[in-house]
Design goal:
Layout lengths: L4 E7 L2 E9 L4 E10 L4 E2 L14 E4 L5 E6 H8 L3 H15 L8 E2 L3 H9 L3 H30 L1
Antiparallel strand pairs: 1-4, 1-6, 2-3, 2-5, 4-7
Helix pairs in contact: 1-2
């Protein structure tokens, strides 16, 4: 892998830019594409395949820009213990190799979602949500077993 880090903006803003050669001026123009805010991710596709070269340049757009670095190799190791995570990683890899995703290697993250789902929840709220989710999975599993048994008859 080339740069094996996925970057998540933790604080501040980052600009996504691309350089284009200007024949008339005989220099490169720096074209602004997007401004990424808290929660946005970049370098997702490039970290899984070393042949993928980044097409974008990222620049801090504020005085302070903190990035959370998530190592793709560690993520793959973790996925060996989580079928859900492994499925997501394999889906991303298939989309990359199948060229179902483009080369613009970032995902904006809706600030509203971040604020409503992370900033205002306590640890107890998050634990309760996980517990409810697991209970729902058990109910669905039971319903599937009942359905399969009825279908066999």
């Amino acid at each position: 892998m080339g740069n094996s880090n996925i970057f998540i903006i933790w604080e501040g803003e980052v600009q996504a830019r691309v350089s284009c050669y200007n024949k008339e001026a005989d220099n490169y123009d720096d074209l602004w594409l997007d401004t990424l805010e808290i929660g946005a991710c970049f370098n997702i596709y490039n970290c899984f395949f070393k042949d993928n070269l980044p097409l974008l340049d990222m620049y801090a757009d504020t005085k302070v820009a903190k990035l959370f670095c998530l190592n793709a190799n560690e993520l793959i190791e973790l996925s060996e213990k989580s079928m859900s995570l492994m499925d997501r990683i394999n889906t991303v890899k298939l989309k990359i190799t199948g060229r179902l995703v483009d080369d613009i290697d970032y995902f904006p993250f809706p600030k509203k979602y971040l604020e409503s789902n992370v900033q205002f929840k306590t640890d107890q709220d998050i634990r309760q949500e996980r517990k409810n989710y697991l209970q729902q999975k058990e109910v669905m599993k039971h319903q599937m077993i009942v359905f399969v048994e009825k279908y066999k008859q």
